[in-house]
UniProtKB/TrEMBL annotation:
This is VOC family protein. The lineage of its organism: Bacteria, Pseudomonadati, Bacteroidota, Flavobacteriia, Flavobacteriales. InterPro entries: VOC_core (IPR037523). Residues 2-116 form the VOC domain. It comes from Flavobacterium quisquiliarum.
Amino acid sequence: MKLAKIQIQTPNIQQTTAFYQDILELSIIEKTVDSVSIQAGNSILKFVEQPSFKSIYHFAFNIPENKLDEAIKWCRNKTDLIVIKDENVITNFENWNAHAIYFYDNNGNLLEFIARHDLDNSENKAFSSKSILNISEIGIVNENPLELGNELISKYDLNFFSKNTNSEAFAAIGDDEGLLIIVRPNRNWYPTQTPSESNKTEVRLQNNGNRITIKF
C-alpha cells in the first residue's frame, strides 16, 4: 500500500512552506494563497491553511534502510532531534525490523524518518532530501481504532499490518511501504507527551492497482 498524497492543516502557510523548502529542502510543486503541495519522494504532502488550527499531526517518511546514521547527521545540521533516552535519538522497532528518529516541523507536527530493513531500498549515494522516499505513515485518531480498521479493510480491500499487534487502542493498516496508524484520542504520540487529537485529514492511497481517497 502506498500513501500517494496526504492533505492536512496548518495555521501558517508561509512558515510551513519555508520549513519544508528551506530546512528539509523538498520541492514545492504547487502554491496558492492558502495551500502548498510538497513533493516528498513518491508522495505529495499538502497543507491547507486554517489560521485557527492549534493541533498537530504525526506522519513519517521512509528513508533508505541503510541511511539512518547519515540521516541523523543531516538532520542535526537543520533541526533538533528528539532524544529517546540518555542522549540516544534512535528507536528500535524490533517487531517491525525498523529504526526511526523523530523531530518537529514548524507547526509542532511530529515527523519521523524510518528505515525499514525488510524493504530493498538501500542506497550508495550520500543522504540528502532526495533520500526521502515517500510518506510512510499518517496518524489517524479515532475512538475505536480496531473498529475503524475493520471498516476500512472491508470497504477498500485493505489489510492490517502483519507485523503489528493490533488492539482496541492502536491499529495499523497497510505494509512497510505505507501505513495508516490509528490510535485513540489522548494517547500520547510516541516518543512525546503530546496527546493525539482527531484532525481533518485526507489520504489518497494506491493499493493493488486501485486508487482510493479517504477523508477522516
